[in-house]
Amino acid sequence: MSPLGGGSLLLAWQLKGKHVLIVGGGDVASGRIESVLAADAHVTLITPSNGLHPLTKCFLDGPYNITYHDRLFGGVQDLANVDLVLTAIDDVVQSRVICSLCRELKIPVNVADIPESCDFYFGSQIRDGPLQIMISTNGNSPKLANIIRRKIEQNLPEHAGDAIIRVGELRTKLKERAPGVGGEIGKRRMRWMIDVCTSWEMEELALLDDQMIRKLLDDGWEKNAVPSPAEVGARSCQTYSATPNVAVPGVPVTMLSFVAGAACASLFLLARRR
Ligand SMILES: C[C@@]1(CC(=O)O)c2cc3[nH]c(cc4nc(cc5[nH]c(cc(n2)[C@H]1CCC(=O)O)[C@@](C)(CC(=O)O)[C@@H]5CCC(=O)O)C(CC(=O)O)=C4CCC(=O)O)c(CCC(=O)O)c3CC(=O)O
Ligand SMILES: NC(=O)C1=CN([C@@H]2O[C@H](COP(=O)(O)OP(=O)(O)OC[C@H]3O[C@@H](n4cnc5c(N)ncnc54)[C@H](O)[C@@H]3O)[C@@H](O)[C@H]2O)C=CC1
Fold first, then answer.
1. Strand positions, DSSP E, 78-158
2. What is residue 180's three-state secondary structure?
3. In sequence order, which residues have a C-beta less than 8 Å from that of residue 199 and are 6 or more positions away?
4. Counting ligands in written order, which one lies closest to the CA of residue 141?
5. What is the CATH architecture assignment of 19-155?
6. Is 193 in contact with 166 (CB distance < 8 Å)?
7. Contact between residue 133 and residue 152 where contact means Cβ atoms under 8 Å apart
């Protein structure tokens, strides 16, 4: 058995509404921007415009929550009201300065080129809607993290993201129907959800629509049973046809922003799916 220590605490950090400062605008910074926007944070980007990676430019031109300052990092005043700092610059002296300012102010910081200056590391990531997977080698081999990520991607169950969305909806409706935190009701809800998730296939769960959810709750939850997909109205000939993934949730539905989003998404795929 491997020893318990020597790893990291892997968490899903809730950044919605928080202020994240990103210093640098190159290749690595563009990945940071994408990761932080995925978490609905507000990004402040400080970097001169002459060093912008095409993907960083794309994010700046797109309909995203980014405040941009076209200049070098200016010192401690840039850290006011900041919850998290990510630096990805090609200047190791400045990197160390930013790190020590953050440590003084107790702001969590990641410095892309100096592992000792990181309070946390990034990892290789997989995203399918609400499903996020991170592979960390704890600083030992980022390239192997990338290779392992691609192997895991090839073996993910199909429609996992859609299944998670639909089961999320079922759980919300179940909690509305049988409210209360903890206690007997909580235990019964959890037992029933475990039974549903383990008796239906991933693809069947992905097909749950609002009508099927209602029937599953009426004929399943209310009667302490788990009906089959057919029993709640899934047609045996029903084939899976999910709506295509939207590049970034919350994008205003204007043609301009759609085109910008699509261009950014394509650029992102070209830049990162290595
Ligand atoms: C500690 C960490 C800090 C942090 O960045 O948070 C860190 C540090 C450093 N990376 C360096 C190099 C490379 N990094 C990559 C790629 C990625 N690096 C990522 C994370 C991390 N990199 C954190 C630990 C991750 C872990 O624990 O596994 C990934 C996973 C996530 C991301 O950055 O978003 C992303 C892959 C994403 C994907 O593809 O899915 C490649 C490959 C490539 O570019 O193709 C190379 C060249 C090959 C190689 O070295 O492996 C160097 C310079 C080393 C030198 O000078 O020799 C340092 C500094 C040092 O190690 O001293
Ligand atoms: N952690 C990781 O995954 C990896 C880390 N790195 C390291 O990360 C750093 C960044 O890598 P890249 O994005 O490829 O570099 P890059 O050279 O493409 O970009 C550097 C960016 O930092 C900006 N910059 C430099 N000094 C600045 C300052 N004082 N204030 C604001 N902006 C400043 C530049 O204008 C440019 O936009 C490098 O040190 C590199 O060695 C490199 C590869 C992977």
1. 84-87, 109-111, 124-128, 131-135
2. coil
3. 226, 228
4. 1
5. 3-Layer(aba) Sandwich (3.40)
6. no
7. yes
Q: Are 99 and 119 within 8 A, CB to CB?
A: no
Asked if residues 6 and 138 have their Cβ atoms less than 8 Å apart, the reply is: yes
Q: 20: which residues sit within 8 A by CB, 6+ positions away?
A: 36, 41, 42, 43, 44, 82, 83, 84, 85, 86
Domain ranges of the chain: 19-155, 160-232
pLDDT tens readout for residues 152-198: 999 999 999 999 999 999 999 999 999 999 999 999 999 999 999 99
Tell whether ligand 2 has an atom less than 6 A from the beta carbon of residue 265: no
Q: In this structure, how many other beta carbons lie within 10 angstroms of the beta carbon of residue 42?
A: 18
Ligand 1 center to 189 CA (angstroms): 42
CA distance 254 to 139: 42
State the pairing for strand pair 131-135/124-128.
Answer: antiparallel
Give the end-to-end CA distance of the chain in Å, rounded to a whole number. Answer: 33
Q: Which of 146, 147, 153, 274 to mutate to test the pocket of ligand 1 (most atoms within 8 A of CB)?
A: 146
Instruction: Quote the tokens at residue 70.
Output: 């076209």
What is the predicted pLDDT for the residue at 30?
A: 98
| Predicted confidence (pLDDT) per residue in 76-122, tens digit | 999 999 999 999 999 999 999 999 999 999 999 999 999 999 999 99
**Ligand having the closest approach to the CA of 120:** 1
Q: Does the beta carbon of 30 sit less than 6 angstroms from any atom of ligand 2?
A: no
Q: Which of 40, 91, 113, 195 is catalytic?
A: 113
In angstroms and rounded to an integer, the radius of gyration of the C-alpha atoms of the chain is 22
0.80 exceeded by the pTM?
yes
